[in-house]
Design a protein that fits this description.
The chain has one domain (10-182). It has three helices and seven strands. It has helices spanning 10-60, 62-65, 110-128, and strands spanning 72-77, 80-85, 133-138, 148-153, 156-157, 173-174, 177-182. Strands 2-1-3-4-7 form a five-stranded antiparallel sheet, with helices on one face. Strands 5-6 form a two-stranded antiparallel sheet. It is rod-shaped. It starts with 9 loop residues before the first helix and ends with a strand.
Amino acid sequence: MRARSRGFSLIEVLVALLVIAVGLLGLAKLQAISYASTGTAALRSLAALQASSLVSAMRANRNYWSTVATPLSIKISGTTVTVVTGDSTLANATYDCVYGDAGSNAPCTTAQLAAYDLHYWVQNLSSQLANVTGSINCPTPAAPPTGCWIQLSWFERTIGANNQSLSSVSTAMAAPTYTLYFVP
């Protein structure tokens, strides 16, 4: 009788290598998705920080923003500010209210400072988020105080988890929206 051989056959080794290779490919795909998700999360955090920075500027200039005539509706597209309803002074980007630099209009009125803050914010916003659009809406309240919404939308690349998902191609663009409600 022949003694049984010990060890692994060539087929067993090839099957084991195939299982390991499939597992490593799955890990590589998982890493690519997590990397893309990190970029998406960074853009969404930037949108939240930018919206909060405008709210801070509005609260610093509370003498204007808490008494602004309502309804107020402002549209933002890239670096363009359009006042749909409300104080048309806000559409003026020529004010220079930087006190430390002895700006041309320093010291500004509260309305000029609001316009300056808004346009400075829009410039920063458009440099941070691609193809940004947005709106600032302060409807007429039933009772004080006036509440406002900032809504931002921008384009970001997405990546899908598998080929069946609509955004499986890394060049697909999504337009997420961030909305912030506040009382100036």
